[in-house]
Amino acid sequence: QVQLIESGGGLVQAGGSLRLSCAASGRTFSSVSMGWFRQAPGKEREFVAGISSFGRSTSYADSVKGRFTISRDNAKNTMYLQMNSLKPEDTAVYYCAADTQRRLSSKLVQRDCDYWGQGTQVTVSS
User: What percent of the chain has pLDDT over 70?
Assistant: First the structure.
């Protein structure tokens, strides 16, 4: 069974940091693009960051650029999202996703992602 499992979410004060992990099992994702999306209460799910298959290309939403860093360790079949300078508006459920048809591009499109994690809650208090 193929699974993406997120971890690392929690409650943090504004200005703090968290590191999310997405561990894959059931198949290797080293040859496909992966990324992070988030959904805040009452809002649609949105793209946060993406990374190409071997990490040579990364993309970020304007709202997180300069504060978040996406990375991956293909030997561990794991992807990460380092989140610094967190703001209350970053509060959301964060999902990792994989697009098995995409390798070189880091600009993931939600409807094209065919594997999703269950989500991890990030809450930033003011």
Answer: 100
Separation CA 20–CA 51 (nearest Å): 14
DSSP per position, 33-96: EEEEEEE-TTS--EEEEEE-TTSS-EEE-TTTTTTEEEEEETTTTEEEEEE-S--GGG-EEEEE
Q: How many other β-carbons are positioned within 10 Å of the β-carbon of residue 40?
A: 14
For residue 74, the number of C-alpha atoms closer than 13 Å in the C-beta half-sphere is 13
Alpha carbons 33 and 89: distance in angstroms, whole number: 26
Residue at token pair 């409807």 = 111
Q: Identify any residues that bridge with 34 across adjacent strands, giving them in sequence order.
A: 51, 98
Segment 17-45 mean pLDDT? 95
